[in-house]
Design a protein that fits this description.
The chain is α/β, with parallel strands linked by helices. 36% of the residues lie in helices and 23% in strands. The chain folds into 3 domains: 3-244, Aminohydrolase, N-terminal nucleophile (Ntn) domain (Glutamine Phosphoribosylpyrophosphate, subunit 1, domain 1), CATH 3.60.20; 254-445, 3-Layer(aba) Sandwich (Rossmann fold), CATH 3.40.50; 451-591, Rossmann fold, CATH 3.40.50.10490. The strands form 5 sheets. It has an 8-stranded antiparallel beta sheet, with helices on one face. It starts with a strand and ends in an 18-residue tail after the last helix. It binds fructose -6-phosphate (F6R). Fructose -6-phosphate is lined by residues 301-304, 348-350, 353, 356, 400-401, 489, 605-606.
Length: 609
């Protein structure tokens, strides 16, 4: 988590730092701070709260310098406060650092430094790094950084400045993202591309263990032994506007409305609408190659994990391979029975989620073949997995994932069709029918988004409730899980999802008069059973909002309200059924006055365990 920026050139650093940080606030927004070298001395300005609080603090007193670093924080060690905000300095104030990640051995290091007489002024793990710089300084910043790297353990992106060498910024990373932007007579550092895209499109991505010395006129990269590293520079081809709100009130709403395009883009080059076939040129698997795979593991966190659960249904039913789905933070601690005959699929929008990456690495260590499904080109998942399927959702800025989720579902469905055909478990006719259904999805989503008034009304009517339940069977259950997560994370309404048949094994006790229960009823083979469960909650006077297909005339007899979605196949239904759930959460959050794009305590990219 946390957002990092750096600038060195001949323009004023502070405006760039503040602008860049505003693009990275999704990574953390507990506090913000910048440090510059002003009149030869380190000047740090930081405060708890959003970036706006820092802007206000700097009004009329903007630091003046052509070199600086900045940070938006998502607290791990030490509560959000002024003193725990980054940047951190050593006791002399001459060495300054910003950090994203966790220094795991910071307590031992802190004790050693305290024994030497060092006084600490924050509760963070990061502060040890600043003191270590001062303690180990040998007159040369690069060699001192290398010494620091030899003693710290953990995960980090680190950016250093010091008074002794005013013409450079040094940065390094392990398990956390860092990109360098190359300008003319100026260079940029950031955790993520949106921070620099307004200034340069020429970038490269730092890899673990690399140390970059960034000056006004160039960037020099080496490893800890001093071996020079030639980095491949690439041009970012995103539209800068793609990372802005484009007229929508929130990024989340914009991203919900971008789903038809995201779907089309993710199908491009993979779905042949005429022949009704799926290809994955990036995989190019053969049926022989797949013979050896006898088990698939899908590993992910949060929303991506929910996409994984849907993926399990797809792969098991269409490709007839046993699939286990794991929460990434649990995976490696349960000694998973992964071996050379396993395929491990990790799903991650950002491609940087720490637990997901750890699961990927563990699977590789155990000999599995690995496949990353990610939205971010060049992300750690993309680089480390044996093969990668990109979802082309475009940048997702809102913390609550929407278009990344639906493109993940789409990727999993396309993959299951592809594998099913290769393994001969999916008949050509059924595959064609499935692909035909896929081709209609973008337009169907588009149509659903044209009229959302009914959902706004429900959100107003039930937005003040404290609890809500989501029920469904089979694929509907998997979607219910995502619906509940969306509602919780942005509206703070307590929400739980249950397999509809499971409710009576305990949770039915919580269903009382007036509690909203959202029942998904799109799966034909379990439809009657779902309707029975719907009636069970109705009998306890719950308010039922059902989600079913247009043309379903039964649901309205049992439910208080019905949201109709366009008729589609059972495997396609999740792609549409989640839409009203995303919108319901969005408008409920608005009703409750919540900060939709930046929900409390959450950050977009979770790069700590
Ligand atoms: C919820 C949400 C999170 C992420 C999770 C994994 O809306 O976005 O639950 O899905 O943190 O993130 P990625 O997909 O980047 O690995």
């Amino acid at each position: 988590m946390c957002g990092i920026v750096g600038y060195i050139g001949s323009k004023q650093a502070a405006p760039f730092l503040l602008d860049g940080m505003s693009k990275l606030e999704y990574r953390g927004y507990d506090s913000a701070g910048i440090a510059v070298l002003e009149k030869g001395q380190v000047r740090v300005e930081k405060c708890v709260g959003r970036l706006d609080a820092l802007r206000q603090k700097l009004e009329g007193n903007m630091p003046e310098s052509v070199i600086g670093i900045g940070h938006t924080r998502w607290a791990t060690h030490g509560r959000p406060s002024d003193r725990n905000s980054h940047p951190h300095t050593d006791s002399s104030g001459k060495f300054v650092v910003v950090h994203n990640g966790i220094i795991e051995n910071y307590l031992a290091l802190k004790e050693e430094l305290i024994a030497k007489g060092v006084e600490f002024s924050s509760d963070t793990d990061t502060e040890v790094v600043a003191h270590l710089m001062a303690d180990l300084f040998d007159g040369d910043m690069e060699s001192t950084v290398k010494k620091v790297l030899k003693v710290i353990k953990g995960s980090y992106s680190l950016v250093f400045m010091c008074e002794a060498e005013q013409d450079k910024i040094i940065c390094t990373k392990k398990d956390n993202p860092l990109v360098i932007g190359l300008g003319e007579g100026e260079n940029f550092i950031a955790s993520d591309i949106p921070a620099i895209i307004n200034h340069t499109r020429r970038t490269f991505i730092m890899s673990d263990g690399e140390i970059a010395t960034v000056t006004k006129d160039g960037v020099w990269v080496q490893d800890i032994e001093g071996t020079p590293i030639n980095k491949k520079v690439f041009e970012v081809n995103w539209n800068a506007e793609a990372a802005e709100k484009g007229g929508f009130e929130h990024f989340m709403l914009k991203e919900i409305y971008e789903q038809p395009k995201a779907m089309r883009d993710t199908m491009t080059g993979r779905v042949n609408a005429e022949e009704k076939t799926i290809t994955f040129p990036e995989l190019n698997w053969t049926s022989e190659e797949l013979q050896g795979i006898n088990k698939i593991f899908i590993v992910a966190c949060g929303t991506a994990y929910h996409a994984g659960i849907v993926g399990k249904y797809y792969l098991e039913q269409l490709a007839r391979v046993p699939v286990e789905v794991d929460i990434a933070s649990e995976f490696r601690y349960r000694s998973p029975l992964v071996d050379g005959n396993s395929l491990c699929i990790v799903i991650s929008q950002s491609g940087e989620t720490s637990d997901t990456l750890a699961a990927l690495r563990e699977s590789k260590r155990l000999g599995a073949r690995t496949l990353g499904v990610t939205n971010v080109v060049g992300s750690s998942v993309a680089r480390e997995a044996d093969q990668v399927i990109y979802t082309y959702a475009g940048p997702e800025i809102a913390v609550a994932s929407t278009k990344a989720y639906t493109t993940q579902l789409l990727a999993m469905l396309m993959l299951a069709i592809y594998v099913g055909r290769l393994r001969g478990t999916l008949a050509e006719e059924q595959a064609k029918e499935l692909v035909g259904g896929l081709a209609s999805i973008p337009e169907q989503i588009h149509k659903m988004l044209e009229d959302v008034d009914q959902i706004k009304v429900f959100a107003r009517e039930y937005g003040s409730c404290e609890d809500a339940f989501f029920l469904g069977r089979s694929l509907d259950y998997a979607v219910a899980l995502e619906g509940a997560l969306k509602l919780k994370e942005i509206s703070y309404i307590h929400a739980e999802a249950y397999a509809a048949g499971e409710l009576k094994h305990g949770t039915l006790a919580l269903i009382v008069s007036g509690v909203p229960v959202i029942v998904l009823a799109t799966q034909e083979d379990v439809y009657d059973k779902t309707v029975s469960n719907l009636q069970e909650v109705k009998a306890r006077e719950a308010v039922v909002i059902a989600i079913g297909f247009e043309g379903d005339t039964s649901l309205a007899k049992y439910a208080d309200h019905v949201i109709y979605i366009p008729k589609t196949g059972k495997y396609h239904a999740p792609l549409l059924a989640v839409l009203p759930l995303q919108l319901l959460s969005y408008y409920a959050a608005l009703t409750r006055g919540c900060d939709v794009d930046k929900p409390r305590n959450l950050a977009k990219s979770v790069t700590v365990e």
